[in-house]
Write a structure and sequence with these properties.
alpha+beta; about 40% helix; Threonyl-tRNA Synthetase, Chain A, domain 2; about 140 residues; two-stranded antiparallel sheet
């Protein structure tokens, strides 16, 4: 008859929705992790000058506008005032280990935009994937 479906078709549709939602959640988690790593990596370089405010000192880190999880992972970064592509290229050897990759290639894509391509070590897992053991709570040794 028309309009009737097999119950397994509903189950398949529901399962695929859950899978898509979980994939989106994992992608969001990976992007959050990359932003956090970027901020920490740049804080130790001349890319993030210290800014003195009434509430204390902070660092002005170049902001990530877009993340492409690749492979390879690509970050579109907005240049802060006074920074050039040469500043990013000079800082790349310090940023790469903090990001968990072998190297970073910077290219200027527009006047105030730089693209960072994270180049993993040959045979290494991508830096944005967390292992299952990272999500488990630590067990106390008895």
């Amino acid at each position: 008859m028309f309009g009737r479906r097999n119950p397994t078709e509903y189950m398949h549709h529901e399962r695929s929705g859950r899978v898509r939602r979980r994939e989106r959640e994992l992608a969001t988690e990976r992007m959050s992790d990359l932003r956090w790593r970027w901020r920490n990596a740049c804080s130790a370089t001349p890319l993030a000058p210290m800014i003195y405010t009434p509430s204390g000192v902070t660092r002005a880190v170049p902001t990530i506008d877009h993340i492409d999880l690749g492979p390879p992972v690509r970050l579109r970064v907005r240049l802060r005032i006074g920074l050039t592509i040469a500043d990013f290229i000079d800082a790349a050897p310090k940023i790469a280990p903090a990001m968990g990759v072998a190297a970073i290639r910077f290219t200027q894509v527009a006047e105030h935009w730089v693209e960072a391509v994270l180049l993993p070590s040959p045979g290494a897992a991508p830096p944005y994937q967390s292992s299952e053991s990272d999500r488990q709570p630590a067990k106390s040794g008895v």
